[in-house]
Amino acid sequence: MGTPAQxxxxxxxxxxxxxxxxxxxxxxxxxxxxxxxxxxxxxxLATILDSLDFDAxxxxxxxxxxxxxxxxxxxxxxxxxx
Length: 82
What we know:
2 strands; mainly alpha; two-stranded antiparallel ribbon
């Protein structure tokens, strides 16, 4: 999974830990579930999950559990400006 590279047509990786985990956390939080948006939580989660490769999602979650942290060790490597 990637996001369009800045200024070009290529792709750069999307950090699972910095994008997907916080998004899932926010959407599934009690603050959202108990708000007027609460009725939209299931459709939002379904849309997110439909747009992700389930096997890739499972592998990312397994790596996080095995690593014991949600820190993204690769974030700085592709995000540095030369």
